[in-house]
Amino acid sequence: MEKDFLESRLNINRRRFLSRLSLGIGSAALGSLLIPDLFSGKGEEAEADFIAGIPNFAPKAKRVIYLFQDGAPSQLESFDYKPKLREMMGQELPPSVRGNQILTGMTAKQASFPLVGSFYDFKQYGESRAWISDLFPHIGKIADDICIIRSMNTDAINHDPALTFFQTGAQQGNRPSMGSWVSYGLGSENKNLPAFTVLLSKGKGNGQGVYSKLWSNGFLDSIHQGVQFSSGEDPILYLNDPEGLNRHERRKMLDNLAALNDINYKEFGDPEINTKIQQYEMAYRMQTAVPEIMDVSKESDDIVKMYGPECLIPGTYAANCLLARKLSENGVRFVQLYHQGWDQHNNLPQEMAGQAKDVDQASAALVTDLKQRGLLDETLVIWGGEFGRTNYSQGKLDAANYGRDHHPRCFSVWMAGGGIKPGMVYGESDEFGYNIVKDPVHVHDFHATILNQLGIDHTKLTFKSQGRRYRLTDVAGNVVKGIIT
Amino acid sequence: MKSSHKGFADGALFALNVFILVLLLAGNSLVVPQWLQPAGRLHPLVLHFPIVILMLAMLMEFFRFRPEFVDEKLYQSFTNYLLVLGALFASVTVIMGLLLSREAGYEGSNLQWHKWFGVGVAFVGYGVYLIRNRERYTATIAKTGAIVTIFCLIMAGHFGGNITHGDDFVFGPIMDKDKKQVPINEALVYRDVIAPIFEAKCQSCHNADKTKGGLKLTDEESILKGGKKGKLFVVGNPQISLLLQRIHLPEAEKKHMPPIGKPQLTDEEKLLLYFWVKNNADFKKKVIDLPATDSLRIIASSFLKPAESTEETYDFSAASESDIKKLNNNYRVVYPLAAESPALAVNIYNKSTFNVKALEELSPISKQVVSLDLNKMPVKDADLKAVAKLENLRRLVLNFSDVTGKGLKELGGLKNLRSLSLAGVKLTPADIKQLSAIKSLTELAVWDTGLKPADFHSLQAGNKQLKVLTGFKDDGKPVKLTNPELKNKAVIFSESYPLQLTNPIKGVDIRYTTDNSAPDSARSLLYKRGTVLTQSTVIKARAYKQGWIGSDTVQFNVYKCRYTPDSVLFITRPDDKYKGDGAKTIIDKELGGTSFGNGKWLASQKDLEMMMWFNKPIEMHFLELNTMRNIGSQIFLAAAIEVWGGPDKDHLKLLSTLKTATPHKDDPFGLVPLTCKLKAAQTVSCLKIVAKPLKTVPDWHPAKGKPGWVFMDEVFIN
């Protein structure tokens, strides 16, 4: 190393310096002609626009809990009330409504597209008088705390790309997850826990898998990867010390390892080495922090009644909601839940009832629980799937049994807290629940809005990888100002 | 120079200067004939000559008396030529300029300054020329004259530039143009949306100095007045408004505005002007007063700063970086609220390491902390003294801390506190009165404090903006309990089994039976810790709790297996699909569960024979074989089981035979232990078990005639 520095110094003498300088100035001039911003100082600024770990402006929300309903719940049996579909039960979907929408292979060859109304009735709730289906009575009770967006739309029509799009802002699956972006953008609030955690649960309905690429850090530093908490004795794999190793020994081992790593760092200067040391240290602190969080035995009866007794059974959606509250309360920036089993291609009325029963009470309880702790203001809760479902039946239409295929053009999600207007319904679909007629919200807009609530300008949260700066919102996205307080 | 030329030049110079004087004195009363206008318009061309020539001449004049130049003939006469030429050009230029200024559209202070400096150049230049060869003309006078002329030249040039190109033309690009973006909720339609368009694209020709077409676009009055061609717009009717007509004319059209070569309006700007006129060209309206669907508002909101980011501005200065860094540790996070914000947020974690020092150490940043999160920390009342010093605190979380009502009075001094979370802190109605001192409070979270909404009425009466969050209230409807769970890891034991039944809900009674009867809340055994089983048992259990609905009944089977064979071998092999982990599957103390395809079951459609050895002879009373029945999947109980035993494999005797009843259509799915009892206890070292499947499936089954499957996962020897 030292020798190289010396050689490099010897290589420069006055003559060489001057001849190089002239070349340098010449190319700088040329460069400034080719890249207009080169000397305007703007380039530098753009780089400095974003400092990792600090929001661009004061955030409304400090944390996010994303209740992902994996498989795509039907908007027509949940939050988008379409009485017209009941009136027109069994009639053909007018081609003018369908337009040029491409269908999936599952229904594209279907001879007829009979419209089907919701098997379940709807009621109006709260001061906002929002229509919510009878499958979600508990969410109905918090209607005045949530903002239902009925005009979500996405680009993808199949589960994997759509899910990946929602989670990473791109369909291909090599980008960092939203949680990783947030971890990168805001840093950790609690150094004893990962900034991005993932919790999985599964309903009895027809399901689609989830896989770790959805919470991958992509090209971001590996410290931003989502950490999966599983039910059972080892909530985080490989976190516990092996049997027979006491904490004191572990400490000694880590210290020595850190010393070795430090020598390596001094020699090669690779920042990943420091990351590694930090991660070991965090894991060490997690060994005490995690058991405390996973322990639900101190939760009061009121809490159990709120979330439903299932919340004490590890691995259920209700338990994950309770855990999400505890993690969030302890400064975890992004808690990502996935509840699988929402892919109702057939047998929808029955399966959806089961799925709704899994999530209704606990989702509502989470919002109420955060609110009563004074934390809802700074925690953004999101509930929704990767796309919607068709207004026509997949397969044979029966009065009490039908299915719905994938529908990317229009579906519903809801958000609560974190500076989102409570008690409002945003956007509108046509009377067939097929197309958006007012205030569409694209997935990119959705991402831009979430980042905005976290104090991040989505156009400034960038990371340069392989010669290109990437954003969660790629080159699109507008903050949905209508739903922001 | 020939004297005739010189004389002509002198004469012309004199005449021109007199003409200038006349023009200046005649002032406004002078009318420029049309044929002379082109001469005036040549002013911007000609003016470059005097600048260069006079500049050079004055430079030479300045150094004229230097000893090395005094006797230089060429130097002296060349300076003279230059001077007379420069003075001539200057006079001509001034005259042209004065003619041009008479045309419409030139006025304002830039013009006045330009005019007088220009005239100054002409006169001073002429003066220097006149006196430069006099006796009393000294070096000082020469230098003064030169400096004054050059100064006038520069100033005239500067103000002239301002007239043609607008103010700050030269330094505009590098001056800080980043005007503060206006948040949408403060923006006025005219001031922040329309006026910037006029400023950028119109005012270079329609300003106070230069009112082309008699139009000035700098203020409300002049805009309403319009120009020579009349009013700019008909309010509410953009189609017939002159302003919109001019900007929408094809570019080639002479009347198109802005003229060719000037920066053009963008489509968005044209739209904004259109909508502004359509919306009655209001000068006072706020952007947010327009309906949310208004096109103008939508376009405007795309470039105005969003309202939500109207950040609170803090009047304190930022804390030192090194202080912040020092205060950050594994259990205390101090971070800025946002980039360039002096405000800090502090979160403290880990109960076991918390002490009051964690708060006291914040004194170097006591001004800057606006948010403090002490969720679940064992904060004592006395510790709140340290919190009270954080004078700018906006938000304080004390959920489930050790604070009591008494401590709250410490918080009275927090004059900026807006949000206070006290969930889980035990309070009395009297405690809450102490909070009335905090007038700034807007949100108070008091779930699980033991207080009722009514307890806050007086507090809310004194502070109308206060929102009290009392949270969930049990509606008294009973909720169904979750099922009891078996906590033991194993269900197979050799001697005794310490039964561990649990339920995650606190205060639950678990009732159970061991005789296959349904448990109830009165007669069944109440589970107590320390219950020990010594035999294979079927436990049926249910959870009960006052005010809750009892759980479902759940069943747990536990199996006793006194002796485990030391080795085991197949004599006939099981089916390849269901061979488990080999013969040891039958003695691995792991049950196969309810799914037959999970690789934990051994199965065959032929006789399945196994041999087992014990290192030490055992005294056997009976043997149980755990099997599966799943008639739908063609899995039946073994038709017969034979148990052979003896001291070694060559001396086995048939010890027991079990025959099962003929299967019935309605036999339920089940995991069935088949017990082979020995007539009398037998000492054996070697055992052979033969499981015979059902020979032919009965006629009522779809697979009638074929042999049944026999499935087994474990053997229990007692």
* Through-space gap between termini of chain A: 57 Å
Radius of gyration of chain A: 26 Å
Adjacency order of strands in the biggest sheet of chain B: 1-2-3-4-5-6-7
Strand content of chain A: 15-25%
Task: Tally the beta strands of chain A.
Answer: 17
Which blocks of ≥5 consecutive residues of chain B have pLDDT under 50? none
- Low-pLDDT residue spans of chain A: 40-48
Number of helices of chain A: 14
Tally of DSSP β-strands of chain B: 23
**Percentage of helical residues of chain B?**
25-40%
**Termini of chain B, distance in Å?**
142 Å
Q: Biggest interface and its residues per chain?
A: A-B, 52 and 49 residues
CATH topology of the largest domain in chain A: Alkaline Phosphatase, subunit A
Shape descriptor of chain A: globular
Main sheet properties of chain B = 7 strands, mixed
Average predicted confidence as pLDDT of chain B: 87
Q: What is the name of the CATH class of the largest domain in chain A? A: Alpha Beta
User: What count of domains describes the coordinates of chain B?
Assistant: 5
